[in-house]
Amino acid sequence: MTATATSAGSGSRGPAPSLRHRPSGGSILADRAATVVLWGTGVFVLLLLGAIILHFAMAAWGVVSLSFVLDDPSDAALGGIMPVLWNSVYMLALTMLIAVPVGILGGIYMSEYAGDNAVTSAIRFAEEAISSVPSIVVGLFGLILFVDNFHMGFTALGGALALTLFNLPLMTRLSEQALRAVPQDERSASLALGATKWQTIRHVVLPLAIPGLVTGVILTAGRVFGEAAVLLFTSGIGTPAHYDFANLDLTNPASPWSPFRPATTLSVYIWKLQSEGLGAFKNQIVDGSAAILISMVLVFNLGARLVGRLLTRKLTAA
Amino acid sequence: MAQLTTANRMASLRAAPSFGERIDLPRRVVFLAAASMIGIVVLLLGFITWQGLQLFLKDGVPVTQVLSSTWQPDSTSPDVTFGLLPFIAGTVFVTAVALLISTPLSVGLALFLSEVAPRWARAIVQPALEIFVGIPSVVWGWLGITILVPFLSDTFHHDLALSLPVVGEVFRAPGFLTGFSWLAGSLVLSIMVLPTITSVSFDAFRAIPQELRTGSLALGTTRWQTIRHILIPAALPGVLTAVVLGMTRAAGEALAVQMVIGNTPVMPQAISQPVTTLTSQITLDMGNTVFGEPWQDALWTMSLVLLIISVASVVLVRVINKRRMAS
Question: For chain A, what percentages of helix, strand and coil (3-state, to nearest 5) are there?
């Protein structure tokens, strides 16, 4: 629509259309130039993303293999990243285990209960404040609260708790948006049938909001998976060892299943390697790890879209 | 429950029951979940403020020393000085240059997406931006180390000087020795905040009523004149909000900046020079210091400064938006 208006203006060259007494020919030239520049920004972003993906595809060539993913790190050879990759997945699961229920419940309050009052605006302020606090400061908060005050030391649990409180605002906001998107008529209909407010939320609103909620969970997961600054001083940056997955004793720090052990994740491992790594294969390992991180980001992003679309189709068709 | 009268039911339709009316367990549970964020903020502010003040309270370092530019935290050295000015100035300058690069690009991109792009182009560029958001900061830092830093040091290694025959040298810009520099940090940051500024500005442009566009175009203006004289002024509070949010993200970013900035605690003077920031120094030193020693207390003071910056930006965004609501 804007396009037709512009071309009509340039075609007729009628009375001076300028706002500030500009010559008509110049303003049309400026318009053309602006259009080219604005298209340029879009092309720039696509080229940059393409270049980054291509760069890591090439850098990972010959590094990423099944053994790179499944082997323990090694000083002598290329080795693998299995323990840190496991820690990333483990930390993600542990964080989401806490953040998803609390975030969705908080979202329910903000969407279904919160009135226009001081408490609500205090919660909104807190939501914005936590989102804007630098991740490294959240990491320091985790350090002083969990590591120093609770004497937990560097543990996966401390890291997961710090990650949880860092990502709670995002999870809450995405849940709130998903719940608000449910049409008001559905609530009215349920309440008119005599259902209580909670019955309405549980049996009507929540099921209808599932596609949005799942998208929110996946987007939050993507952010948790790549986070490193929060974890440096909470779950530790120690050198990962060999993990014995047969050890199922949750209280034993040697067990990879235990939350009470230091857990260096893939992102933290990249940071550690580039800052102090001296091994001959350092660059290849970091390239390979970064390529895996990038592909996980792509998977989380596409996953969020795909799952959201599939769920919407399935739930609305049923 | 079964005894609910019609009147009761109508009441529950109208509004959520207030706290005192009855014990509503689900309501209390979801309220606790939401209100936990208030608790987190209070604890976070409390702990960081308390730790951040230890440098003054426990170690007796005067405020004037903290505002000096000499950083000599090693307790074995003869004159221990905790001047935080290089870090504060580094954060401010690195962030400022990042915003100078990123703001025109991001606002242009937002305008492209909202005013120019056909549907198919938007359907490609918007998902691409979402992927940018998801790329972890260590990966940006690694790209900086492997591509940007070598590029800067190879391309602009020598001083850029302009000499005139009689007058002599009139201009000299120092070259990049290693490539680890203020500019490298700003460039990495400018790409990292691009999605933030773009998406918030995009929302601001989308929120402008269509009548403003059609009215302007009907007067015979070109699209660019409409953008420049109608849309940008109308969306200015939203664009400002976007820039403030981008600033917050840039000032708080730790690992990517630390990896390319050079980590040299000097006052920033040239963009080719290695400098440092608050976040970089915390990242580097926190693990090497002992809890309770003055050196670490100075790091906590740095994190308090960061916290003040971020809380101030939240308040600033609120003020900007309140003014928009009022006007």
Answer: 70, 0, 30
Handedness of CA B236, B240, B246, B249 (dihedral sign): negative
Contact check, Cβ <8 Å, A137/B251: no
CB contact under 8 A, A293 and B136: yes
Read off the pLDDT of residues B176-189 as tens digits, 9 standing for 90 and up.
Answer: 878 899 999 999 99
3-state secondary structure of B173: strand
B222 to A172: CB separation less than 8 angstroms, yes or no: no
Contacts with B29 from chain A: Cβ below 8 Å = 105
- Give the C-alpha separation, A151 to A145, whole Å: 9
Tokens 């209808």 locate to: A208
All residues at 6 or more sequence positions from A170 whose CB lies less than 8 Å from its CB, including other chains: A103, A131, A219, A220, A223
Residue with tokens 């950083």: B71
Phi and psi (nearest 5°) for A106?
-60, -40
Report the amino acid identity of residue A32. R
The answer for B292, left when phi > 0, alpha when psi is -120 to 50, beta otherwise, is left
Task: Provide the residue type at B14 as one letter.
Answer: R
Residues B284-315: pLDDT tens digits?
998 888 888 899 999 999 999 999 999 999 99
- Across the interface, whether the CB atoms of B16 and A232 are under 8 A apart is answered no
ipTM of the complex: 0.86
User: Across the interface, which of A16, A144, A293 has its CB nearest the CB of B51?
Assistant: A144
pLDDT digits (tens, 9 = 90+) for B223-259: 999 999 999 999 999 999 999 999 999 999 999 999 9
Contacts of A107 in chain B (CB under 8 A): 34
CA nearest to A189, candidates A206, A211, A202, A204: A204
Q: Flag if A52 and B135 touch (Cβ within 8 Å).
A: yes
Query: Which residue of A102, A108, A134 is in closest CB contact with B254?
Result: A134
The C-alpha atoms of residue A67 and residue A202 are separated, in whole angstroms, by 46
Position B138 pLDDT exceeds 90: yes
A147 in Cβ contact with A165 (< 8 Å): no
CA A26, CA A15: separation in Å to the nearest integer?
14
Q: Is B11 on the interface with A (CB under 8 A)?
A: no
Output B9 or B229, whichever has higher pLDDT.
B229
Q: Which two tokens stand for residue B297?
A: 């207390």
Most confident of A28-32, A308-312, B85-89, B167-171: B85-89
Partner residue facing A196 (CB), from B1, B130, B300: B1
Chain A segment 222-241 residues within 8 A of B by beta carbon are 222-223, 225-229, 232-233, 237
pTM flag (> 0.90): no
Between CA A182 and CA A197 the distance in angstroms is 15
With beta carbons less than 8 A apart as the criterion, state whether A255 and A77 touch. no
Q: Which residues does chain B have within 8 Å of residue A286's beta carbon, measured at their own beta carbons?
A: 142
For A200-209, what is the mean pLDDT? 92
Residues 6+ apart with CB under 8 A from A267: A88, A225, A226, A227, A228, A231, A293, B136, B138
